[in-house]
Amino acid sequence: MNPASKPPVPPTFEQVLAKLEEIVRVLEAGDTTLEESLARYEEGVMLLKCGYDQLRLAEQKILLLNGEDAGGKPKSKPFEHPSDSERLNSRSRPPRKTEY
Amino acid sequence: MRVATSVNPETSTEFPFVPEGVQVQSVQQLTERVRALLEQGFGTVWVEGEIANLSRPSSGHLYFTLRDANATLSAALFRNATFRLPAGFEPKDGLEVIACGKISVYAPRGGYQLIVEKMFPKGLGAAELALRELREKLFRLGYFDAKRKKPLPRFPRTICVVSSATGAAICDMIEILGRRWPVAKVVVQPTLVQGDGAAEQIAKGIRDVNRWKERKLVHIDVIILGRGGGGAEDLSAFNTEIVAQAIYESRIPVVSAVGHEVDVTIADSVADVRASTPSHAAELTVPDRADMIDLLRDTESRIHESTRRLLLLAQRRLDELACRRGFQLPLERVRDQERRLDEIGQRAQRAIQVREAQNKQAMAALAARLEALSPLNVLARGYSLARTEATPELIRSADQVQPGDRLITTVHRGQIVSRVESVERPPDLGCDPPA
After folding, report:
1. Can you tell me the ipTM of this complex?
2. pTM for the full model?
């Protein structure tokens, strides 16, 4: 895959939290210029949205590993539990909208 | 008969009642010789008996007597050896045991005793013994060291569950992982968990995932090792060296959810984190989404609050500056100037109004005079203006026309066009120069 053609990778939740912690620290210390603080604030609001979205829109993905192919690469397929088709069906529904 | 060896002449002379050539020893010296004789003479011994008079002082060592119908033997089991007792084995009075250790002497009491290194309840089976030996071996190899245990990632993105894909435990784990942290992907590495080949499959499952990760074919942050579920399960696969080794060598942190509360397997002991149940493992592995939303909310209010405070602070500083005398003085001056400007403006306004009125009057007077001078008014009184058709000049003298010229005469109302019949000059009054 050509790396240049990849869309920009959104930050992981861990990265979002780390950046937010830094922003809170800077804002609460209050020793930057007003312009800088407002820029940080704006960035913080965007990161918060990103964090909320990740939690809200997350839909659990489950795969079953299935040995490896001739090239030594792992094979996988969707996970299905034989004893619990009802629960499985409930998983394939569109993502639940959860209110916070 | 005298002992000829180690004669000390001084001693002999000092104590006349001691036969000549005999060495008098201190109690300590003699005791040390007894100790040497016993320790070398017996080496390691195995002995069976019943525990009696067991005491557990705060040092953590155990002191007791081993006895049978006809004899007793003092025994000590030091603290470091207590850790090697079989799991679940609690020495107590009346228990039949087999102990292994060395005979030694406790000098202060002058008694000999067994220093116990290993001890087993008499009923222990071969399998338990083998397990115990394996546990001891792995302990020595450092498999259980807390120092080498890896921390779990706080926010795993992909979780690999090495377990039976058909058991009840996997369902519980997926359910809990999905409820708490659906952000993470779950991959199931299916293995047998009991019966022939189970241990090999479990070990291979762990090793495969590690190998794929090293080759960057998968991204896996943490492995959960689980049993199938159900109470009466055979956990022996998780008590094997091959599984222990696979866990020990895993570069990916392993959470084990194999044993029950009371039954800790070797896999549990080697794993980086031990969970009491599969559900517990799922809870330990991922954060709770609800907690994280609370955290974000808290962060949100802190960001808003601190920014609001910064803005208020900035505004207050501006206000304070504006109130200073330095800023007030020029302002007062500006207001003075403004007032003066206002006054000048009003005076100018009044002056302009007066001038306008004067101008109007002057205009009216001029207009009246113009009216009086207008030739039209003269015509109205009966005068007329005449000029020839050829020139625009008004005719003031008879000399200006010839008979036959066309005249245009302007009267009060309209014009009259006429022809000159004759011209009569006025008599020469001697006033005009001669023509």
Report:
1. 0.75
2. 0.56
pLDDT for residue B207: 96
- Select from B299, B317, B318 the residue whose CB has the most chain A CBs within 10 Å, as the one to mutate to test that interface: B299
Other Cβ atoms less than 10 A from the Cβ of B109: the count is 9
Other residues' Cβ atoms within 10 Å of the Cβ of residue A91: 18
Q: Does B303 touch chain A (CB under 8 A)?
A: yes
B contacts of A79 (beta carbons < 8 Å): 165, 174, 186, 188
Domain ranges of chain A: 13-92
- Name the least confident of B88-102, B133-147, B378-392: B378-392
Rounded Cα distance between B147 and B396, Å, is 140
User: In Å, how far are A45, A74, B155, B296, B307 from B300, measured between CA atoms?
Assistant: 8, 42, 20, 6, 11
Q: Whole-angstrom Cα distance, residue A49 to residue B205?
A: 39
Backbone angles phi, psi at B118, to 5 degrees: -135, 150
**DSSP assignment of B389-434:** SS--SBP-SGGG--TT-EEEEE-SSSEEEEE-----PPPP-S-SPP
